[in-house]
Amino acid sequence: MANAFFNVPHASCEPVKPYAPGCEQREAVQALYNKMMSEQLDIPMYIGSEEVRTGNTAQITPPHDHQRVVGQYHRGGAEHAKQAIDAALGARKSWSQMPWEHRASIFLKAADLLAGPFRNRMNAATMIAQSKNIFQAEIDASCELIDFLRFNAVYLTQLYKDQPESDPGMWNRMELRPLEGFIYAITPFNFTSIAANLCSAPALMGNVIVWKPSDSQVYSAQVIVDLFKAAGLPDGVINVVYGDPVEISDVVISHKEFAGLHFTGSTHVFKHLWKQIGNNIDMYNSYPRIVGETGGKDFIVIHESAEARPAATAIIRGSFEYQGQKCSAASRVYAPNTLWAAIKDVLVTDMATVKMGDPGDFSNFINAVIHEGSFNKLASYIDRAKAASDAEILVGGNYDKSKGYFIEPTIIVTSNPYYETMEQELFGPVVTIYVYDADKFEETLKIVDETSPYALTGALFATDRYIIDSASKALENACGNYYINDKPTGAVVSQQPFGGARASGTNDKAGSAMNLMRWVSAKTIKETFVPATDYRYPFLG
Ligand code: NAD
What we know:
The longest helix has 28 residues, at 134-161. With 541 residues, the chain is an alpha/beta fold. Helix 2 (78-97) crosses helix 8 (245-253), helix 4 runs antiparallel to helix 7 and helix 10 (308-320) packs across helix 11. Strand 20 (457-461), helix 15 (465-474) and strand 21 form a beta-alpha-beta unit. The model has no long low-confidence stretch (mean pLDDT 98). The protein folds into 2 domains: 24-294 and 505-524, 3-Layer(aba) Sandwich (Aldehyde Dehydrogenase, Chain A, domain 1), CATH 3.40.605; 298-484, Aldehyde Dehydrogenase, Chain A, domain 2 (3-Layer(aba) Sandwich), CATH 3.40.309. Helices cover 39% and strands 19% of the residues. The two termini are 47 Å apart. The chain is globular. The site of nicotinamide-adenine-dinucleotide has 30 residues, from helix 8 and helix 9.
Protein backbone atom coordinates (compact mmCIF):
# COMPACT_ATOMS: atom_id res chain seq x y z
CA MET A 1 0.00 0.00 0.00
CA ALA A 2 1.17 3.52 -0.71
CA ASN A 3 2.00 5.86 2.17
CA ALA A 4 -0.43 8.49 1.00
CA PHE A 5 -4.11 9.02 0.35
CA PHE A 6 -4.59 9.98 -3.27
CA ASN A 7 -7.16 12.28 -4.86
CA VAL A 8 -8.36 11.05 -8.24
CA PRO A 9 -8.26 13.57 -11.10
CA HIS A 10 -11.18 15.99 -11.15
CA ALA A 11 -14.03 14.52 -13.23
CA SER A 12 -16.27 16.50 -15.52
CA CYS A 13 -18.75 15.26 -18.10
CA GLU A 14 -17.27 14.40 -21.47
CA PRO A 15 -18.35 17.04 -24.04
CA VAL A 16 -20.58 15.64 -26.80
CA LYS A 17 -18.99 16.09 -30.21
CA PRO A 18 -21.38 17.64 -32.76
CA TYR A 19 -20.48 15.66 -35.93
CA ALA A 20 -21.78 18.55 -38.03
CA PRO A 21 -21.18 18.46 -41.80
CA GLY A 22 -17.59 19.27 -42.72
CA CYS A 23 -16.03 18.42 -39.36
CA GLU A 24 -13.08 16.07 -39.36
CA GLN A 25 -14.47 13.65 -36.76
CA ARG A 26 -17.63 13.11 -38.80
CA GLU A 27 -15.67 12.08 -41.86
CA ALA A 28 -13.42 9.80 -39.81
CA VAL A 29 -16.39 7.97 -38.22
CA GLN A 30 -18.15 7.70 -41.55
CA ALA A 31 -15.07 6.19 -43.22
CA LEU A 32 -14.57 3.76 -40.35
CA TYR A 33 -18.25 2.78 -40.37
CA ASN A 34 -18.04 1.99 -44.10
CA LYS A 35 -14.83 0.01 -43.62
CA MET A 36 -16.22 -2.00 -40.71
CA MET A 37 -19.44 -2.74 -42.61
CA SER A 38 -17.35 -4.47 -45.28
CA GLU A 39 -15.15 -6.50 -42.90
CA GLN A 40 -15.72 -9.75 -41.03
CA LEU A 41 -14.91 -10.12 -37.33
CA ASP A 42 -14.41 -13.44 -35.57
CA ILE A 43 -15.29 -12.82 -31.91
CA PRO A 44 -14.23 -15.30 -29.23
CA MET A 45 -15.29 -15.58 -25.60
CA TYR A 46 -12.72 -14.33 -23.07
CA ILE A 47 -12.11 -16.65 -20.16
CA GLY A 48 -9.07 -15.94 -18.01
CA SER A 49 -6.15 -15.47 -20.40
CA GLU A 50 -7.83 -17.56 -23.12
CA GLU A 51 -9.68 -16.52 -26.24
CA VAL A 52 -12.20 -19.34 -26.53
CA ARG A 53 -13.48 -20.34 -29.96
CA THR A 54 -16.01 -23.19 -29.83
CA GLY A 55 -16.89 -23.35 -33.51
CA ASN A 56 -20.53 -23.04 -32.47
CA THR A 57 -20.91 -19.67 -34.15
CA ALA A 58 -23.69 -17.18 -34.77
CA GLN A 59 -23.62 -14.50 -37.44
CA ILE A 60 -23.60 -10.80 -36.64
CA THR A 61 -25.83 -8.72 -38.92
CA PRO A 62 -26.66 -5.02 -38.54
CA PRO A 63 -30.38 -4.47 -37.78
CA HIS A 64 -30.63 -1.95 -40.64
CA ASP A 65 -29.07 -4.34 -43.17
CA HIS A 66 -29.85 -7.84 -41.96
CA GLN A 67 -28.54 -9.68 -45.01
CA ARG A 68 -25.05 -8.26 -44.54
CA VAL A 69 -22.78 -10.26 -42.29
CA VAL A 70 -20.15 -8.24 -40.42
CA GLY A 71 -18.81 -11.08 -38.33
CA GLN A 72 -19.49 -14.10 -36.21
CA TYR A 73 -19.13 -14.90 -32.53
CA HIS A 74 -18.49 -18.13 -30.70
CA ARG A 75 -21.16 -19.39 -28.33
CA GLY A 76 -20.49 -21.42 -25.26
CA GLY A 77 -22.52 -23.39 -22.77
CA ALA A 78 -22.55 -24.69 -19.23
CA GLU A 79 -18.89 -25.80 -19.26
CA HIS A 80 -17.77 -22.32 -20.36
CA ALA A 81 -19.82 -20.75 -17.61
CA LYS A 82 -17.96 -23.01 -15.14
CA GLN A 83 -14.61 -22.09 -16.67
CA ALA A 84 -15.46 -18.38 -16.48
CA ILE A 85 -16.34 -18.71 -12.78
CA ASP A 86 -13.07 -20.57 -12.11
CA ALA A 87 -11.09 -17.94 -14.01
CA ALA A 88 -12.80 -15.15 -12.06
CA LEU A 89 -12.18 -16.80 -8.71
CA GLY A 90 -8.58 -17.50 -9.75
CA ALA A 91 -8.02 -13.80 -10.40
CA ARG A 92 -9.81 -12.69 -7.23
CA LYS A 93 -6.99 -12.67 -4.73
CA SER A 94 -4.58 -10.53 -6.77
CA TRP A 95 -7.30 -8.19 -8.00
CA SER A 96 -9.07 -7.67 -4.70
CA GLN A 97 -5.76 -6.98 -2.98
CA MET A 98 -4.49 -4.58 -5.64
CA PRO A 99 -4.29 -1.08 -4.12
CA TRP A 100 -7.39 0.84 -5.15
CA GLU A 101 -5.45 3.56 -6.94
CA HIS A 102 -4.17 0.99 -9.44
CA ARG A 103 -7.65 -0.39 -10.08
CA ALA A 104 -8.96 3.15 -10.50
CA SER A 105 -6.04 4.02 -12.74
CA ILE A 106 -6.88 1.20 -15.15
CA PHE A 107 -10.45 2.43 -15.59
CA LEU A 108 -9.37 6.09 -15.78
CA LYS A 109 -6.95 5.10 -18.51
CA ALA A 110 -9.82 3.29 -20.27
CA ALA A 111 -11.81 6.56 -20.11
CA ASP A 112 -8.97 8.50 -21.71
CA LEU A 113 -8.44 5.86 -24.38
CA LEU A 114 -12.15 5.99 -25.18
CA ALA A 115 -12.14 9.79 -25.29
CA GLY A 116 -9.23 9.53 -27.73
CA PRO A 117 -8.10 6.63 -29.91
CA PHE A 118 -11.03 4.26 -29.23
CA ARG A 119 -13.81 6.79 -29.72
CA ASN A 120 -14.49 6.40 -33.43
CA ARG A 121 -14.34 2.62 -33.31
CA MET A 122 -16.62 2.40 -30.28
CA ASN A 123 -19.12 4.74 -31.95
CA ALA A 124 -18.97 2.98 -35.33
CA ALA A 125 -19.38 -0.44 -33.68
CA THR A 126 -22.44 0.79 -31.78
CA MET A 127 -23.92 2.30 -34.96
CA ILE A 128 -23.50 -1.07 -36.71
CA ALA A 129 -24.46 -3.44 -33.89
CA GLN A 130 -27.36 -1.56 -32.40
CA SER A 131 -28.40 0.68 -35.32
CA LYS A 132 -27.76 4.01 -33.61
CA ASN A 133 -27.20 7.25 -35.49
CA ILE A 134 -23.89 8.95 -34.75
CA PHE A 135 -25.37 11.27 -32.12
CA GLN A 136 -27.03 8.41 -30.21
CA ALA A 137 -23.81 6.37 -30.43
CA GLU A 138 -21.72 9.32 -29.23
CA ILE A 139 -23.89 10.10 -26.18
CA ASP A 140 -24.02 6.43 -25.20
CA ALA A 141 -20.92 4.50 -26.21
CA SER A 142 -18.47 7.37 -25.81
CA CYS A 143 -19.71 10.11 -23.49
CA GLU A 144 -21.79 8.11 -21.03
CA LEU A 145 -19.22 5.36 -20.74
CA ILE A 146 -16.38 7.84 -20.26
CA ASP A 147 -18.45 9.53 -17.55
CA PHE A 148 -19.19 6.23 -15.81
CA LEU A 149 -15.50 5.39 -15.75
CA ARG A 150 -14.33 8.79 -14.51
CA PHE A 151 -17.06 9.51 -11.96
CA ASN A 152 -17.06 6.03 -10.50
CA ALA A 153 -13.42 6.56 -9.52
CA VAL A 154 -14.47 9.75 -7.72
CA TYR A 155 -17.36 7.97 -5.97
CA LEU A 156 -15.03 5.19 -4.89
CA THR A 157 -12.84 7.68 -3.03
CA GLN A 158 -15.89 9.34 -1.47
CA LEU A 159 -17.03 5.99 -0.13
CA TYR A 160 -13.59 5.04 1.13
CA LYS A 161 -13.14 8.43 2.80
CA ASP A 162 -16.40 8.18 4.73
CA GLN A 163 -15.12 7.00 8.10
CA PRO A 164 -16.74 6.57 11.54
CA GLU A 165 -16.14 8.81 14.56
CA SER A 166 -13.65 7.76 17.25
CA ASP A 167 -14.03 8.52 20.94
CA PRO A 168 -10.82 9.20 22.92
CA GLY A 169 -8.69 6.10 23.44
CA MET A 170 -9.71 4.31 20.27
CA TRP A 171 -9.50 4.47 16.51
CA ASN A 172 -12.58 3.31 14.59
CA ARG A 173 -12.10 2.52 10.95
CA MET A 174 -14.26 1.20 8.13
CA GLU A 175 -13.05 -0.68 5.14
CA LEU A 176 -15.11 -1.61 2.10
CA ARG A 177 -14.19 -5.13 1.11
CA PRO A 178 -15.03 -6.53 -2.30
CA LEU A 179 -17.77 -9.16 -2.03
CA GLU A 180 -16.63 -12.69 -1.29
CA GLY A 181 -17.01 -14.65 -4.50
CA PHE A 182 -17.78 -13.30 -7.97
CA ILE A 183 -20.36 -11.00 -9.61
CA TYR A 184 -22.55 -11.97 -12.54
CA ALA A 185 -23.25 -9.13 -15.02
CA ILE A 186 -26.09 -9.68 -17.51
CA THR A 187 -26.41 -6.79 -19.91
CA PRO A 188 -29.01 -5.49 -22.43
CA PHE A 189 -28.60 -4.63 -26.10
CA ASN A 190 -29.58 -1.02 -25.99
CA PHE A 191 -26.67 0.81 -24.31
CA THR A 192 -23.00 0.02 -24.88
CA SER A 193 -22.26 2.16 -21.82
CA ILE A 194 -24.56 0.09 -19.60
CA ALA A 195 -22.96 -3.13 -20.80
CA ALA A 196 -19.50 -1.82 -19.87
CA ASN A 197 -20.62 -0.24 -16.60
CA LEU A 198 -22.38 -3.33 -15.26
CA CYS A 199 -19.08 -5.18 -15.28
CA SER A 200 -16.61 -2.34 -14.68
CA ALA A 201 -18.38 -0.78 -11.66
CA PRO A 202 -18.13 -3.91 -9.46
CA ALA A 203 -14.65 -4.61 -10.86
CA LEU A 204 -13.50 -1.12 -9.84
CA MET A 205 -14.56 -1.96 -6.27
CA GLY A 206 -12.26 -5.01 -6.36
CA ASN A 207 -14.67 -7.70 -7.55
CA VAL A 208 -14.22 -10.28 -10.31
CA ILE A 209 -16.88 -10.75 -12.94
CA VAL A 210 -18.60 -13.22 -15.23
CA TRP A 211 -20.17 -11.14 -17.99
CA LYS A 212 -22.91 -12.32 -20.34
CA PRO A 213 -23.64 -9.63 -22.93
CA SER A 214 -26.79 -9.53 -25.08
CA ASP A 215 -26.60 -11.48 -28.35
CA SER A 216 -27.52 -8.22 -30.09
CA GLN A 217 -24.59 -6.27 -28.64
CA VAL A 218 -21.68 -8.68 -29.15
CA TYR A 219 -20.10 -6.56 -31.89
CA SER A 220 -19.69 -3.50 -29.65
CA ALA A 221 -18.97 -5.69 -26.59
CA GLN A 222 -15.80 -6.73 -28.41
CA VAL A 223 -14.65 -3.09 -28.47
CA ILE A 224 -15.28 -2.87 -24.72
CA VAL A 225 -13.09 -5.95 -24.21
CA ASP A 226 -10.35 -4.43 -26.38
CA LEU A 227 -10.62 -1.12 -24.52
CA PHE A 228 -10.24 -2.71 -21.08
CA LYS A 229 -7.35 -4.85 -22.28
CA ALA A 230 -5.61 -1.79 -23.73
CA ALA A 231 -6.08 -0.04 -20.38
CA GLY A 232 -4.28 -2.90 -18.62
CA LEU A 233 -7.12 -4.83 -17.00
CA PRO A 234 -5.58 -8.13 -15.85
CA ASP A 235 -6.85 -11.41 -17.30
CA GLY A 236 -9.65 -13.09 -15.38
CA VAL A 237 -11.10 -9.94 -13.82
CA ILE A 238 -13.89 -9.70 -16.42
CA ASN A 239 -14.68 -12.98 -18.20
CA VAL A 240 -17.01 -12.89 -21.19
CA VAL A 241 -19.32 -15.76 -22.13
CA TYR A 242 -21.82 -15.93 -24.96
CA GLY A 243 -24.61 -18.43 -25.47
CA ASP A 244 -28.01 -19.52 -24.22
CA PRO A 245 -28.73 -17.20 -21.28
CA VAL A 246 -30.72 -19.84 -19.41
CA GLU A 247 -28.04 -22.52 -19.69
CA ILE A 248 -25.30 -20.10 -18.63
CA SER A 249 -27.32 -18.49 -15.84
CA ASP A 250 -28.35 -21.84 -14.38
CA VAL A 251 -24.70 -22.67 -13.80
CA VAL A 252 -23.66 -19.24 -12.58
CA ILE A 253 -26.57 -18.70 -10.21
CA SER A 254 -26.24 -22.09 -8.60
CA HIS A 255 -22.56 -21.63 -7.67
CA LYS A 256 -21.89 -21.28 -3.96
CA GLU A 257 -19.59 -18.32 -4.51
CA PHE A 258 -22.14 -16.35 -6.53
CA ALA A 259 -22.04 -13.04 -4.67
CA GLY A 260 -24.14 -10.65 -6.74
CA LEU A 261 -26.18 -10.04 -9.86
CA HIS A 262 -25.78 -6.80 -11.81
CA PHE A 263 -28.60 -6.91 -14.33
CA THR A 264 -30.22 -4.59 -16.82
CA GLY A 265 -32.92 -5.86 -19.15
CA SER A 266 -36.56 -6.77 -19.11
CA THR A 267 -38.66 -7.11 -15.97
CA HIS A 268 -39.78 -10.70 -16.52
CA VAL A 269 -36.18 -11.93 -16.90
CA PHE A 270 -35.12 -10.11 -13.74
CA LYS A 271 -38.03 -11.52 -11.75
CA HIS A 272 -37.21 -15.00 -13.02
CA LEU A 273 -33.57 -14.60 -11.93
CA TRP A 274 -34.58 -13.22 -8.53
CA LYS A 275 -36.82 -16.26 -7.93
CA GLN A 276 -34.01 -18.57 -9.00
CA ILE A 277 -31.65 -16.88 -6.55
CA GLY A 278 -34.29 -17.16 -3.82
CA ASN A 279 -34.71 -20.86 -4.50
CA ASN A 280 -30.94 -21.37 -4.29
CA ILE A 281 -30.46 -19.32 -1.14
CA ASP A 282 -29.21 -22.24 0.96
CA MET A 283 -26.42 -22.92 -1.53
CA TYR A 284 -24.58 -19.65 -1.13
CA ASN A 285 -21.75 -18.55 1.12
CA SER A 286 -23.36 -15.11 1.51
CA TYR A 287 -26.63 -13.41 0.61
CA PRO A 288 -26.10 -12.32 -3.01
CA ARG A 289 -26.58 -8.65 -3.83
CA ILE A 290 -29.29 -8.24 -6.46
CA VAL A 291 -29.21 -5.07 -8.50
CA GLY A 292 -31.49 -4.81 -11.51
CA GLU A 293 -32.75 -2.00 -13.70
CA THR A 294 -35.61 -3.17 -15.86
CA GLY A 295 -38.60 -2.07 -17.92
CA GLY A 296 -40.53 1.15 -18.06
CA LYS A 297 -43.73 2.74 -19.30
CA ASP A 298 -42.50 6.29 -19.17
CA PHE A 299 -44.89 9.20 -19.31
CA ILE A 300 -45.23 12.83 -20.26
CA VAL A 301 -48.07 14.71 -18.54
CA ILE A 302 -48.91 18.09 -19.96
CA HIS A 303 -50.87 20.62 -17.93
CA GLU A 304 -52.88 23.29 -19.70
CA SER A 305 -50.49 25.97 -18.38
CA ALA A 306 -47.67 24.42 -20.48
CA GLU A 307 -46.47 25.72 -23.81
CA ALA A 308 -47.38 23.49 -26.72
CA ARG A 309 -44.13 23.58 -28.71
CA PRO A 310 -41.68 22.47 -25.99
CA ALA A 311 -44.13 19.75 -24.92
CA ALA A 312 -44.49 18.48 -28.49
CA THR A 313 -40.71 18.60 -29.01
CA ALA A 314 -40.25 16.53 -25.86
CA ILE A 315 -42.72 13.97 -27.24
CA ILE A 316 -40.75 13.68 -30.49
CA ARG A 317 -37.30 13.50 -28.93
CA GLY A 318 -38.34 11.56 -25.86
CA SER A 319 -40.33 8.92 -27.76
CA PHE A 320 -38.39 8.44 -30.95
CA GLU A 321 -34.68 8.99 -30.34
CA TYR A 322 -32.97 5.64 -30.75
CA GLN A 323 -36.29 4.31 -32.05
CA GLY A 324 -37.81 4.47 -28.57
CA GLN A 325 -35.47 1.69 -27.45
CA LYS A 326 -34.34 3.54 -24.33
CA CYS A 327 -35.74 2.27 -21.08
CA SER A 328 -36.50 5.93 -20.37
CA ALA A 329 -38.32 6.60 -23.68
CA ALA A 330 -41.68 8.33 -23.41
CA SER A 331 -44.39 5.94 -24.50
CA ARG A 332 -47.58 7.38 -23.00
CA VAL A 333 -48.63 11.01 -23.09
CA TYR A 334 -51.47 12.81 -21.35
CA ALA A 335 -52.38 16.02 -23.22
CA PRO A 336 -55.12 18.47 -22.16
CA ASN A 337 -57.92 19.01 -24.67
CA THR A 338 -57.34 22.80 -24.44
CA LEU A 339 -53.79 22.48 -25.85
CA TRP A 340 -54.26 19.44 -28.04
CA ALA A 341 -54.79 21.26 -31.37
CA ALA A 342 -51.55 23.22 -30.93
CA ILE A 343 -49.56 20.15 -29.82
CA LYS A 344 -50.95 18.04 -32.64
CA ASP A 345 -50.03 20.70 -35.17
CA VAL A 346 -46.35 20.65 -34.11
CA LEU A 347 -46.27 16.84 -34.00
CA VAL A 348 -47.71 16.39 -37.48
CA THR A 349 -45.61 19.17 -39.03
CA ASP A 350 -42.30 18.20 -37.41
CA MET A 351 -42.73 14.44 -37.86
CA ALA A 352 -43.13 15.01 -41.60
CA THR A 353 -39.46 16.10 -41.66
CA VAL A 354 -38.09 13.09 -39.76
CA LYS A 355 -35.98 10.78 -41.92
CA MET A 356 -35.54 7.06 -41.30
CA GLY A 357 -32.85 4.73 -42.64
CA ASP A 358 -29.27 3.52 -42.36
CA PRO A 359 -27.14 5.17 -39.62
CA GLY A 360 -24.37 5.42 -42.24
CA ASP A 361 -26.41 8.26 -43.75
CA PHE A 362 -26.06 10.97 -41.11
CA SER A 363 -29.26 12.73 -42.12
CA ASN A 364 -31.36 9.88 -40.68
CA PHE A 365 -32.87 10.62 -37.28
CA ILE A 366 -34.49 7.17 -37.00
CA ASN A 367 -32.77 3.86 -37.70
CA ALA A 368 -33.85 0.22 -37.41
CA VAL A 369 -35.20 -1.60 -34.37
CA ILE A 370 -32.92 -4.22 -32.91
CA HIS A 371 -34.17 -7.51 -34.37
CA GLU A 372 -36.99 -9.35 -36.10
CA GLY A 373 -38.70 -10.33 -32.83
CA SER A 374 -38.98 -6.70 -31.83
CA PHE A 375 -40.08 -5.70 -35.35
CA ASN A 376 -42.87 -8.30 -35.41
CA LYS A 377 -44.08 -7.35 -31.95
CA LEU A 378 -44.24 -3.65 -32.81
CA ALA A 379 -45.96 -4.35 -36.14
CA SER A 380 -48.66 -6.35 -34.35
CA TYR A 381 -49.36 -3.50 -31.90
CA ILE A 382 -49.61 -1.08 -34.84
CA ASP A 383 -51.97 -3.42 -36.71
CA ARG A 384 -54.21 -3.75 -33.69
CA ALA A 385 -54.27 0.04 -33.22
CA LYS A 386 -55.35 0.45 -36.86
CA ALA A 387 -58.28 -1.90 -36.25
CA ALA A 388 -59.22 -0.65 -32.76
CA SER A 389 -62.34 1.42 -32.19
CA ASP A 390 -60.73 3.38 -29.37
CA ALA A 391 -57.41 4.19 -31.10
CA GLU A 392 -56.23 5.83 -34.30
CA ILE A 393 -52.88 6.39 -35.94
CA LEU A 394 -52.02 10.08 -36.12
CA VAL A 395 -48.52 9.75 -37.58
CA GLY A 396 -46.63 6.80 -39.11
CA GLY A 397 -48.04 3.29 -38.90
CA ASN A 398 -45.94 1.73 -41.69
CA TYR A 399 -43.21 -0.84 -41.35
CA ASP A 400 -40.86 -2.73 -43.64
CA LYS A 401 -38.35 -5.48 -42.89
CA SER A 402 -37.16 -6.21 -46.41
CA LYS A 403 -33.68 -4.74 -45.86
CA GLY A 404 -33.64 -3.71 -42.22
CA TYR A 405 -36.10 -3.79 -39.33
CA PHE A 406 -37.68 -0.42 -39.96
CA ILE A 407 -40.73 0.70 -38.02
CA GLU A 408 -41.96 4.16 -38.93
CA PRO A 409 -42.15 6.38 -35.84
CA THR A 410 -45.80 6.09 -34.92
CA ILE A 411 -48.12 8.25 -32.85
CA ILE A 412 -51.35 6.59 -31.70
CA VAL A 413 -54.16 8.70 -30.23
CA THR A 414 -56.55 6.89 -27.95
CA SER A 415 -59.78 7.75 -26.18
CA ASN A 416 -59.06 5.02 -23.62
CA PRO A 417 -56.40 5.79 -20.98
CA TYR A 418 -56.06 2.05 -20.42
CA TYR A 419 -55.63 1.14 -24.09
CA GLU A 420 -52.97 -1.60 -24.35
CA THR A 421 -50.25 0.74 -25.68
CA MET A 422 -50.85 3.07 -22.70
CA GLU A 423 -50.06 0.20 -20.34
CA GLN A 424 -47.53 -2.22 -21.82
CA GLU A 425 -43.85 -1.67 -22.56
CA LEU A 426 -43.39 -1.84 -26.36
CA PHE A 427 -39.75 -0.77 -26.56
CA GLY A 428 -39.94 0.80 -29.99
CA PRO A 429 -40.81 4.01 -31.85
CA VAL A 430 -44.48 4.03 -30.87
CA VAL A 431 -46.03 6.58 -28.51
CA THR A 432 -49.67 6.79 -27.49
CA ILE A 433 -51.46 9.99 -26.53
CA TYR A 434 -54.56 10.22 -24.40
CA VAL A 435 -56.30 13.59 -24.64
CA TYR A 436 -57.89 14.37 -21.29
CA ASP A 437 -60.42 16.95 -20.21
CA ALA A 438 -58.32 19.83 -18.85
CA ASP A 439 -60.73 20.17 -15.92
CA LYS A 440 -59.83 16.65 -14.82
CA PHE A 441 -56.11 17.14 -14.24
CA GLU A 442 -56.06 15.61 -10.77
CA GLU A 443 -58.00 12.53 -11.86
CA THR A 444 -55.60 12.22 -14.77
CA LEU A 445 -52.58 12.28 -12.44
CA LYS A 446 -54.13 9.39 -10.55
CA ILE A 447 -54.46 7.47 -13.82
CA VAL A 448 -50.81 8.24 -14.66
CA ASP A 449 -49.73 6.93 -11.27
CA GLU A 450 -51.83 3.76 -11.34
CA THR A 451 -51.88 2.66 -14.99
CA SER A 452 -48.61 0.77 -15.21
CA PRO A 453 -46.62 -1.46 -12.84
CA TYR A 454 -43.46 0.42 -13.81
CA ALA A 455 -41.99 3.58 -12.30
CA LEU A 456 -38.88 4.48 -14.28
CA THR A 457 -39.07 7.97 -15.79
CA GLY A 458 -41.72 10.62 -16.17
CA ALA A 459 -42.05 14.24 -17.22
CA LEU A 460 -44.39 17.07 -16.32
CA PHE A 461 -44.91 20.09 -18.55
CA ALA A 462 -46.48 23.08 -16.78
CA THR A 463 -45.71 26.72 -16.04
CA ASP A 464 -48.08 27.17 -13.09
CA ARG A 465 -45.87 26.72 -10.02
CA TYR A 466 -48.74 25.54 -7.77
CA ILE A 467 -49.45 22.84 -10.35
CA ILE A 468 -45.78 21.89 -10.58
CA ASP A 469 -45.75 21.46 -6.82
CA SER A 470 -49.03 19.54 -6.46
CA ALA A 471 -48.49 17.32 -9.52
CA SER A 472 -44.98 16.47 -8.36
CA LYS A 473 -46.41 15.33 -5.04
CA ALA A 474 -49.15 13.29 -6.75
CA LEU A 475 -46.51 11.59 -8.90
CA GLU A 476 -44.03 11.06 -6.06
CA ASN A 477 -43.80 7.29 -6.55
CA ALA A 478 -44.61 7.14 -10.25
CA CYS A 479 -40.97 7.27 -11.37
CA GLY A 480 -37.35 7.20 -10.22
CA ASN A 481 -36.22 9.94 -12.64
CA TYR A 482 -38.59 12.90 -12.83
CA TYR A 483 -38.33 15.78 -15.29
CA ILE A 484 -40.01 19.16 -15.07
CA ASN A 485 -40.38 20.78 -18.48
CA ASP A 486 -37.97 18.39 -20.17
CA LYS A 487 -38.15 15.07 -21.98
CA PRO A 488 -37.83 12.00 -19.74
CA THR A 489 -34.71 10.63 -21.48
CA GLY A 490 -31.03 11.56 -21.59
CA ALA A 491 -29.92 11.17 -17.96
CA VAL A 492 -26.29 12.20 -17.54
CA VAL A 493 -23.89 10.47 -15.14
CA SER A 494 -23.16 12.70 -12.11
CA GLN A 495 -26.11 14.95 -12.96
CA GLN A 496 -29.20 12.75 -13.01
CA PRO A 497 -28.29 9.40 -11.38
CA PHE A 498 -30.52 6.86 -13.11
CA GLY A 499 -32.93 4.18 -11.92
CA GLY A 500 -36.57 3.44 -11.32
CA ALA A 501 -38.77 1.91 -8.67
CA ARG A 502 -41.74 -0.48 -8.52
CA ALA A 503 -41.40 -3.05 -11.36
CA SER A 504 -38.66 -0.94 -13.00
CA GLY A 505 -35.86 -2.08 -10.75
CA THR A 506 -34.04 -1.88 -7.48
CA ASN A 507 -33.22 1.81 -8.03
CA ASP A 508 -29.56 1.58 -7.14
CA LYS A 509 -28.83 4.52 -9.44
CA ALA A 510 -26.22 3.66 -12.03
CA GLY A 511 -23.51 6.30 -12.08
CA SER A 512 -23.58 7.08 -8.37
CA ALA A 513 -21.97 6.04 -5.10
CA MET A 514 -25.25 4.25 -4.24
CA ASN A 515 -24.56 1.68 -6.93
CA LEU A 516 -20.91 1.14 -5.97
CA MET A 517 -21.95 0.60 -2.37
CA ARG A 518 -23.84 -2.54 -3.45
CA TRP A 519 -20.57 -4.19 -4.55
CA VAL A 520 -18.77 -3.98 -1.24
CA SER A 521 -19.16 -5.42 2.21
CA ALA A 522 -18.26 -2.95 4.91
CA LYS A 523 -16.01 -4.07 7.73
CA THR A 524 -15.81 -2.03 10.91
CA ILE A 525 -12.56 -2.10 12.86
CA LYS A 526 -12.26 -0.79 16.42
CA GLU A 527 -8.76 -0.51 17.79
CA THR A 528 -8.36 0.33 21.49
CA PHE A 529 -5.06 1.96 22.44
CA VAL A 530 -4.96 1.09 26.13
CA PRO A 531 -7.27 -1.90 26.79
CA ALA A 532 -9.21 -2.24 30.06
CA THR A 533 -7.57 -4.36 32.77
CA ASP A 534 -10.43 -4.64 35.31
CA TYR A 535 -13.95 -5.87 34.52
CA ARG A 536 -15.55 -3.78 37.32
CA TYR A 537 -17.44 -0.66 36.20
CA PRO A 538 -17.56 2.31 38.62
CA PHE A 539 -21.28 1.73 39.35
CA LEU A 540 -20.40 -1.56 41.05
CA GLY A 541 -18.32 0.30 43.62
P1 NAD B 1 -33.70 -8.76 -22.29
O1 NAD B 1 -34.32 -8.95 -20.96
O2 NAD B 1 -34.29 -9.47 -23.46
O3 NAD B 1 -32.16 -9.20 -22.24
C1 NAD B 1 -31.28 -8.65 -21.28
C2 NAD B 1 -30.20 -9.67 -20.99
O4 NAD B 1 -30.80 -10.78 -20.31
C3 NAD B 1 -29.54 -10.24 -22.24
O5 NAD B 1 -28.15 -10.40 -22.00
C4 NAD B 1 -30.23 -11.58 -22.40
O6 NAD B 1 -29.44 -12.53 -23.09
C5 NAD B 1 -30.43 -11.98 -20.96
N1 NAD B 1 -31.49 -12.96 -20.74
C6 NAD B 1 -32.63 -13.12 -21.45
N2 NAD B 1 -33.36 -14.13 -20.92
C7 NAD B 1 -32.67 -14.59 -19.85
C8 NAD B 1 -32.89 -15.61 -18.90
N3 NAD B 1 -34.00 -16.37 -18.92
N4 NAD B 1 -31.97 -15.80 -17.93
C9 NAD B 1 -30.86 -15.04 -17.87
N5 NAD B 1 -30.59 -14.05 -18.75
C10 NAD B 1 -31.49 -13.84 -19.73
O7 NAD B 1 -33.65 -7.18 -22.55
P2 NAD B 1 -33.12 -6.39 -23.82
O8 NAD B 1 -34.09 -6.59 -24.95
O9 NAD B 1 -31.68 -6.64 -24.07
O10 NAD B 1 -33.23 -4.90 -23.27
C11 NAD B 1 -34.45 -4.22 -23.24
C12 NAD B 1 -35.04 -4.19 -21.85
O11 NAD B 1 -34.09 -3.65 -20.95
C13 NAD B 1 -36.25 -3.30 -21.76
O12 NAD B 1 -37.23 -3.91 -20.95
C14 NAD B 1 -35.71 -2.04 -21.10
O13 NAD B 1 -36.68 -1.28 -20.43
C15 NAD B 1 -34.68 -2.60 -20.20
N6 NAD B 1 -33.67 -1.63 -19.85
C16 NAD B 1 -33.76 -1.02 -18.64
C17 NAD B 1 -32.84 -0.06 -18.27
C18 NAD B 1 -32.94 0.63 -16.94
O14 NAD B 1 -32.01 1.30 -16.55
N7 NAD B 1 -34.05 0.48 -16.24
C19 NAD B 1 -31.82 0.29 -19.14
C20 NAD B 1 -31.74 -0.36 -20.38
C21 NAD B 1 -32.68 -1.32 -20.72
